[in-house]
Structure formats: C-alpha cells, structure tokens
Amino acid sequence: VEATVIGRFTDDHMLRVRYRGETVAELAARVGAALADWRRGPRPLLAVTHAGVIKAVRVRRAGPAAWEGSLGWGMWETVELD
C-alpha cells in the first residue's frame, strides 16, 4: 500500500493527503522548490498565497509541528529568503 493511501487514515499529518491529492510533505517539497527559485530571482518579492503555502514554508523552516499553527483570515507573514 502506498504512503499516500495510508496517509488518508493516519494521525501523522505529514502523510495525510490534502491539497490536490498531495501530502503535507509533498506540498512542503513543492513550496521548497519555489523558494529556491525565488532566492535566485529579483528582490523585493511579494508572493500572495493561501494558508497551506504559508504553513508549508513554516514546516520547511521549523519541522512538521509547525503545520498545526493557526493563521487568521487576511493575515500575512514575512519570510526572509536568505
């Protein structure tokens, strides 16, 4: 059985299938690739995203527990790319 199938029924939120069939770990990897591209690009940079992307950035920086943090409606977060 694939990890994504197991993830639908697990308490491990990093394996749980969410956005477009991605696990949190897969979303965090995709966001990590975007961050790497943005680091090489022009500055300043403004990225307008949904909460899942912001939480994925947090996971990449602080580990899986960071996914559980809350975000209020219309909230923004500043991230240093260096």
Total helices: the number is 3
What is the structural class? mainly alpha
- Overall average residue pLDDT: 79
Percent of sequence in beta strands:
under 5%
Query: Helix amount, in percent?
Result: 40-55%
Q: State the total count of DSSP E strands.
A: 0
Which of globular, elongated, flat, extended, rod-shaped describes the shape?
A: globular
Contiguous low-pLDDT stretches (5 residues minimum) are none
Our measurement of the CA-to-CA distance between the termini, rounded to an integer number of angstroms, reads 39 Å
Gyration radius, in Å:
14 Å
Largest sheet descriptor: none
Write down the secondary-structure element order. Answer: HHH
Secondary structure: elements and pairs:
Elements: H1 3-7, H2 24-40, H3 51-62
Helix pairs in contact: 2-3
Q: Your description of this structure?
A:
- This protein has 82 residues and is mostly helical.
- Helix content is 41%, strand content 0%.
- It is built from 3 helices and no strands.
- It has helices spanning 3-7, 24-40, 51-62.
- Helix 2 packs across helix 3 (51-62).
- It is globular.
